[in-house]
Write a structure and sequence with these properties.
This protein has 437 residues and is an all-alpha fold. It has two domains: 12-212, Growth Hormone, Chain: A (Up-down Bundle); 230-428, Growth Hormone, Chain: A (Up-down Bundle), CATH 1.20.1250. Helix content is 70%, strand content 1%. It is built from 20 helices and two strands. The chain has helices spanning 14-32, 34-44, 49-65, 67-77, 79-103, 106-133, 140-165, 180-189, 191-209, 236-257, 259-265, 274-292, 299-319, 326-331, 342-354, 357-366, 373-382, 386-398, 404-408, 412-424, and strands at residues 2-3, 216-217. The chain has a two-stranded antiparallel ribbon. Helix 1 packs antiparallel against helix 6, helix 10 (236-257) packs across helix 18 and helix 13 packs across helix 16. The longest helix has 28 residues, at 106-133. The protein starts with a strand and ends in a 13-residue tail after the last helix.
């Protein structure tokens, strides 16, 4: 990508940066609403854990399905128009929640989620290049970090806003036997906030359409070609990186979006805002990564440490106590936060373990792909389907006789073990063992 010559580096970079920052915040806000939406719909629609996990499935599978079509749309309409179209689609998706809430139809909620995921994919595909190109190349990494922190910070705020506007009296209802009047009241609470969200995002789409953003043009680069490799699948470090990213997105979504439902199953009153704890730890981890990588620690070592922490925490969730809040009493209560059950605290702390995995895996997986770099990027984007599939697998496991929700979190442990393997060995492999070369 290259900014056209008529746009200077010094010219009006503040306004484009502010616009892009708002878009990244909205992307994070809409994405991490899912953590509050799950327990809400479980109660309003009387869903099983597996049914509720399809709220996540419909969102993340849309990201996977529309990854490549979004790139085609961008080539046809350009990056700026692509952002406006993505925002318009998100506005439509927000309005789709209104008939879903009025009719209590689960299929309409899933359709709205699918539309939201597809629209966000288009927006992300269009907005990411601007982060690199709207300022000096030397400070691109700093801009990426700032946008990432904004995106994750929105994940802290979104559950709080959702709980305040929509779930105000939810904790007063019986989690097992809410009356029909209670359910209708909760469903009606969803309407006005989503009307406001749709209007705001729609107006922002118009603002982006006419905003003074620089135009980006495709650039071509000479590929580095390995004559012995005629497919992206001949690069083990890419294929294993795709698997690692698939598993990572799955555990990230489990940690961020199932914590509310899990807290509700334990009878914890503040379950609607539990996603905020996971995202707060993620922001802390992101900031630590910005400070320490690569100055004090390499991406590979950071990924290794994250995987080890993930293994320890996932096992702590499974074997921890729901009756004790000793960990929160040490780390959270002195800061004025509520006492979370130990297993909930460990689940939230996975945000810290997950924070730098995404930015660590990408450069390792795309290393020295040459002409297959774009294919590798597409495969990595499609790995986001892990966020659709693993929560369904976990909740299905939870419904097996004798398992339950707490034990079901054991599915995360092999995921982190694979990430550990990738950090230690997988990313260094350049040939399959059965290859002739």
């Amino acid at each position: 990508m290259a900014v056209e010559q008529n746009t200077t580096k010094a010219q009006s970079s503040v306004i484009p940066m502010a616009i892009i920052a708002i878009l990244f915040f909205i992307l994070g806000f809409a994405t991490w609403l899912n953590g509050s939406l799950m327990p809400y719909l479980e109660l309003v629609l009387s869903l099983t854990p597996v049914q509720a996990s399809f709220i996540l499935f419909s969102f993340y599978i849309a990201v996977t399905v529309f990854a490549i079509p979004s790139a085609w749309v961008i080539r046809r309409v350009g990056y700026k128009n692509g952002m406006a179209l993505g925002m318009a689609g998100m506005a439509v998706a927000a309005f789709m929640f209104i008939p879903a809430a009025k009719t209590h139809m689960f299929s309409l909620f899933l359709l709205a989620q699918f539309m939201m995921g597809a629209s966000q994919t288009l927006l992300q595909t269009a907005v990411n290049p601007y982060v690199v190109k709207i300022g000096p190349e030397a400070s691109a990494a700093a801009r990426i970090s700032i946008m990432g922190i904004l995106n994750k910070s929105a994940g802290v705020i979104a559950p709080m806003v959702f709980a305040a506007l929509i779930l105000g009296g939810m904790k007063d209802f019986s989690s097992e036997t809410p009356t029909q009047e209670d359910i209708n009241a909760l469903a009606d609470n969803l309407v006005m906030p989503y009307i406001c969200m749709g209007l705001f995002i729609g107006l922002l789409a118009l603002a982006v359409k006419f905003a003074p953003l620089p135009k980006l043009a495709l650039e071509t680069e000479e590929p580095k070609v390995d004559a012995q490799k005629d497919s992206a699948f001949n690069y083990p470090h890419l294929v294993l990186g795709v698997v690692a990213l698939f598993l990572y997105v799955g555990v990230e979504v489990i940690a961020g979006d199932t914590i509310g439902s899990y807290g509700r199953s334990l009878g914890y009153e503040g379950f609607a805002t539990l996603t905020s704890f996971t995202m707060s730890f993620m922001v802390i981890g992101y900031i630590l990564g910005v400070i320490t990588i690569p100055r004090f620690i390499s991406q590979q070592k950071a990924l290794l440490a994250s995987a080890v922490l993930g293994v320890v925490l996932s096992l702590s969730i499974v074997f921890g106590s729901n009756d004790s809040a000793s960990m929160a009493n040490i780390f959270l209560v002195p800061l004025g936060f509520p006492a979370l059950p130990n297993t909930v605290f460990f689940l939230a702390l996975l945000g810290l373990a997950n924070a730098i995995v995404w930015p660590a895996i990408w450069p390792m997986a795309l290393r020295d792909l040459g002409s297959f770099t774009s294919t590798g990027s597409a495969l990595l984007i499609m790995a986001i389907s892990g966020g659709a599939i693993l929560p369904v697998v976990m909740n299905g496991f939870a419904m097996v006789d004798g398992v339950g929700r707490q034990t079901a979190y054991l599915v995360m442990t092999p995921c982190y073990l694979f990430m550990l393997f990738y950090a230690m060995k997988g990313h260094t492999l350049t040939h399959w063992r059965f290859s002739k070369s």
